[in-house]
């Protein structure tokens, strides 16, 4: 690998109370690369993603993002976008206004076409003038992804981006994430959908309740 990995995880352990839910997890993610965490419910995928974004502290081991421990600073969050935590939507702001707000916060003109493009490809265009509380759970997931993709990020950390999406929209999301990678961004995500993962064609790390399987792979 040329240069320092954008994400470097070594000997990661996470223990809640007396239960170790992540054990001996190791991986590197190169700048511009993608990695998918897979495994059964409770295998620790979200916990690992939370450690990478600094939302959960490792019990042992090392997590480095851009060469430093994730510190939750504004500088860190300018480079990283995540859907690991569900956002709170602003009362009174429409679906479109939420995406525009994120686009603006990323330093872009909200009328530059990207918001329209995201709303359109994610099937939210006709719902843009409504408020998020009126959306179905799948529509809300589409909004979550539209907002995540409205702000350019060097590293996307997504927890099951395909969840609650119907089969027709999953390839669209895979395409958007492929665009992010083609533009030089990096992607770390968890997924339960092998078809979705195959569409991205990225390496997979399989976790098993607290430890990676010896035969990590698809
Ligand atoms: N804050 C916490 N306190 C105690 N236990 C926790 C906490 N967060 C997660 N866990 C436990 O850690 C284990 C791993 O959870 P995690 O959410 O990382 O799994 P996952 O692989 O993402 O699962 P899923 O596929 O269901 O999303 C689970 O048994 C969960 O109950």
Automatic annotation (TrEMBL):
Q: Does the keyword Transport apply?
A: yes
Q: Please state every residue range assigned to the domain named ABC transporter.
A: 7-218
Q: Which UniProt keywords apply?
A: ATP-binding, Nucleotide-binding, Transport
Q: By its UniProt entry, which InterPro entries does this protein fall under?
A: AAA+_ATPase, ABC_transporter-like_ATP-bd, ABC_transporter-like_CS, P-loop_NTPase
Name the Gene Ontology molecular function terms of this record: ATP binding; ATP hydrolysis activity
- Superkingdom of this entry's organism? Bacteria
Q: Which SUPFAM superfamilies match?
A: P-loop containing nucleoside triphosphate hydrolases
Question: So what family is this one in?
Answer: Belongs to the ABC transporter superfamily.
What's the protein name? ATP-binding cassette domain-containing protein
Q: Which organism is it from?
A: Micromonospora craniellae
